[in-house]
Model the fold of this input.
Amino acid sequence: MASSHSAPAPTAESSPLAFFFDQFQSQLPFQLTFPASLPSPNVWTSIAVVVLSLLVLEQTVWRAKRKFLPGDKWTIPIIGQFVNSLHPSLENYQKQWAMGPLSATSVFNMFIVIASANDFARKIFNSSGTYTEPMLVAAARPILEHDNWVFLNGKVHIDYRRMLNQFFTRKSLSMYLSLQDQIAREHFQEWLADSTDEAQPVMGPMRYFNMATSLRVFCGSHVPRDTVRLISDKYWLITKALELVNFPLHIPGTKVYNAIQARKVAMKHLLKAAALSKAHVRAGGEPDCMMDAWCKVMFAQEREYSDKEMAQVVLSFLFASQDAMTSGLIYAFQHLADHPEVLAKVREEQEQIRGGDLTRGITLEELDSCTYLRATVKESLRLKPPVLMVPYKVTAPFPITPDYTAPRGTMVIPSLYPSLHDPAVYPEPTSFLPERWLDPKGTAEQSPKNYLVFGAGAHRCIGYEYALMHIAMVVGTASVLMDWEHSTTQESEKVQIIATIFPKDGCLLKFSPRQRK
Ligand code: HEM
Done:
């Protein structure tokens, strides 16, 4: 093979790339060829210079943005901490939090500031509309759609949220409690019927149960029962794609592509539900679900929300109720199985408050008086908070401290976990101690600012009351109807992160009908 370029013999000074090429060639027993159409070594040199300059620029920008914040001295070229973010782990996050109250990292040139201290976390939560906007994760926009209300910020968000808040008051939510109880009992029956000698992972059944409950509460009978399984399965594809980092192109076969297709199917049914709900309320039907309650309010006012807007709102609610609530419920079952002394107290309280009648659902007033049950749920969510951190994006230079201003475009992440494991507020922070919530003068009750399970500020979880009521009702009812054993493994205390956290072994439980002692 003859070489097709006739440039003078390169030296390291004249062209480093061509020089290396010649060095490489000298090692080979045959002649390598530059086809005539390939750029000459001088062009390669120019490309190398540009690439090198970009790499130097990248490091310079990283150091200029990071300033004195703890973090890598040099960022990994181009990808940053991409590999770590592909496999997020609590251990890696803990390392990052241990770096300091504020620390820096980067993924694909996205500069990220992570707040571990409670003051800074709350400062970020409270900055939306002035310095920041909610970011969720990059894939959230194409999946939930760009015009979904969850991406609103500032005044428009406050107005929209004010309208939705009225459907999440305790009074509004109490009308669904008996329905929730009925659905829970149906699912308990299924879990008991499916129970085998071996404990089974409960992630799948719990997720489906939450979807069935949430669809009933949000959409009533406007989503037929036989569609619930379909939407639940589709939603799993959506959840799996909502990772901190995803493949940037949404081509067939990628998680985000699958999630977009799944959203289209779910939206088809939710759009139909919105139209049916409007027709039901227009015809004078009594509200039987959140969509109906919304229609009733909106027909009495001037602003009419389109079927698409209503369906998108429910889509956003389902995301949260599916994932975070499943995490909260699974850990509540796990913690109670691992602490029989706590379960015994929960049962005693339930039997007392229900007056021995275990066949009927619990009322809101009764639930309110379950002091020990509510402390148990609160403690379970503290110990294993479903959401570890919430990404926000800086929209204007944000002075987080007097010395450090996060530049526009930075991803700022308030972390919830460190505040919820602060030993000064929660002594023995890794122990499950519902009693800490029973002393009104104790540090736990005296430091509500540390209880960041549901976030803080303008975007604080809209569903927190619903989630707390649901988990308490389910666990309370389960405690008097069933026994459950937890098969502990080496992975039970380890955490896997699928948008929210779950026991790494999927939580292996064996349910059986309650044996009264
Ligand atoms: C244990 C269960 C849950 C946990 C731990 C949880 C946690 C959170 C957290 C940490 C945030 C971010 C708050 C912030 O940025 O300050 C959030 C937002 C949100 N959650 Fe939840 N959530 C739960 C259940 C639910 C449920 C059942 C719903 C259903 C309605 C829901 C709907 C939402 C919505 C719509 C937002 C965004 C609110 C806004 O931007 O105004 N969540 N949640």
Summary: The two ends are 89 Å apart (CA to CA). Residues 307-338 form the longest helix (32 residues). Residues 1-24+41-66 form one domain.
